[in-house]
Prior knowledge:
The protein is mostly helical. The chain is 52% helix and 2% strand.
Amino acid sequence: xxxxxxxxxxxxxxxxxxxxxxxxxxxxxxxxxxxxxxxxxxxxxxxxxxxxxxxxxxxxxxxxxxxxxxxxxxxxxxxxxxxxxxxxxxxxxxxxxxxxxxxxxxxxxxxxxxxxxxxxxxxxxxxxxxxxxxxxxxxxxxxxxxxxxxxxxxxxxxxxxxxxxxxxxxxxxxxxxxxxxxxxxxxxxxxxxxxxxxxxxxxxxx
Length: 206
């Protein structure tokens, strides 16, 4: 369900998401139109803008979609070109984007230790899954270790043998997808606790 995002992962995991977006859809031309089954483009672009406020493609798409929704116009169809430029699950192929979301993820983990987080996000509302073990190691590292072993047995279609050395590896991209998932959970918890305004910064000093 590509629509500035990928929808909820009711089945499958980050590797399946990578397979679908970056292997199966790799040869789909940019001009191909995307008709999504749900109208989540505005919500998804707001999240994308939160992840990377400096990206002009995302900012432009967000303004356009917000204007169209304000006038009750549809935002469909999208295109593969648009999705590859503004959808964070496609953008994990960009080194600079991966670095940004890793910084945001680190700030998120730090914020979970602060008093303001508990004021905004009580235990019953916390959906971010990492809070209970926030003082421990990054749980994604263990998962990525298992994934690396699995990927070594899946053949060349997932090995990125001929990739550009400056391009993130498949393992890095899958980890980036998992990071986006964690950040979605974090943002959702904050928005619910603050009435949708995202009223707290991710790295307050308090």
